[in-house]
Amino acid sequence: MILKFGKYKGQRFENTPESYQNWLLNQKWFKIPKKQPLYKQLNGWNGYSNKGQAIYDQIFEQEKNHYINQGLECSCGLRKFKEDKYCKGDHCQNQGL
User: Fold this and answer.
1) Alpha carbons 64 and 52: distance in angstroms, whole number
2) pLDDT tens across 9-64, in order?
3) What residue segments make up the domains of the chain, in order of their start?
4) DSSP secondary structure letter of residue 34
5) Residues 1, 35: contact at Cβ < 8 Å?
6) Which residues on adjacent β-strands are paired with residue 79?
7) In angstroms, rounded to a whole number, what is the distance separating the alpha carbons of residues 81 and 45?
8) Burial of 13 by CB count in 10 Å (0-12 exposed, 13-18 middle, 19+ buried)?
9) How far apart are CA 86 and CA 74, in angstroms?
10) Which of 57, 67, 76, 93 could cross-link 72 (Cys pair, CB 3.0–4.6 Å)?
């Protein structure tokens, strides 16, 4: 988090002296913002803004990586059975993917 106030304005919170971090954390008015899950950040997106598109792309990449790690997606991007090395698509069988 970049500090927007005080002696260390413009610096990352993590890069400030530990004594300053402790002092800030003990202030009632100071709260480190919690990162919302991506799907909540997308709430109300109308399909047009660049920020919404970036969040949507991040969600897609997370899901894709999850399926790849679980062995449920082919290297071509199509779904497959866990026990199969590749999907059943002609493009994978013909190209030797």
Assistant:
1) 18
2) 999 888 999 999 888 888 888 876 666 677 777 777 777 778 788 888 888 888 88
3) 1-34, 46-95
4) P
5) no
6) 73
7) 33
8) middle
9) 5
10) 67
